[in-house]
Amino acid sequence: MDSTDSSSASYHPQLPPGFRFHPTDEELVVHYLKRKAASVPLPVTVIADVDLYKFDPWELPSKATFGEQEWYFFSPRDRKYPNGARPNRAATSGYWKATGTDKPILTSNGSQKVGVKKALVFYGGKPPKGIKTNWIMHEYRLIDSTSSNTKPPGADMGNKKGSLRVYMDMLICISL
């Protein structure tokens, strides 16, 4: 298993010494995921675009832009069926299985729901006889992207239909 923690600083020479990326759930949704979905520039480029279901979890740290024990990715949301809503979470040698219920992500004052967080665990092999591993994924999704209160700061969506990049509707945090 390769790790990128020693080389991650070389990818971001513009970041100050000692920089740490430990955003809250609200910050991830509001300042990164909403902006990415609306094609608005991100505050800093520390989250890579990766189709994470094409890789096993131990391959993902080398694909990350930044991170040591947690790695963040924007990933397309794969569908199990072309016209369905059911996600396909199969990976190369296993699958990601959802655990628990979706957790709402609220603004810091608790007045508005801005997203949803789902926890998943990686199982090696094929369901239902997969072997549980220690790899954990937190999947962050936007709520209804058509309502006006989901626009990120600085986003001018105008009357353009389909201006949200639906294929990048998830932000993923992988940890071991």
UniProtKB/TrEMBL annotation:
Coiled coil: none annotated. The keyword Transmembrane does not apply. One of its GO terms (cellular component) is nucleus. Residues 15-169 form the NAC domain. It is found in: Nucleus. InterPro entries: NAC-dom, NAC_dom_sf. One of its GO terms (molecular function) is sequence-specific DNA binding. GO terms for biological process: regulation of DNA-templated transcription; seed development. It holds the Pfam family NAM. Keywords: DNA-binding, Nucleus, Transcription, Transcription regulation. Its main location: nucleus. This is NAC domain-containing protein. It comes from Vitis rotundifolia.
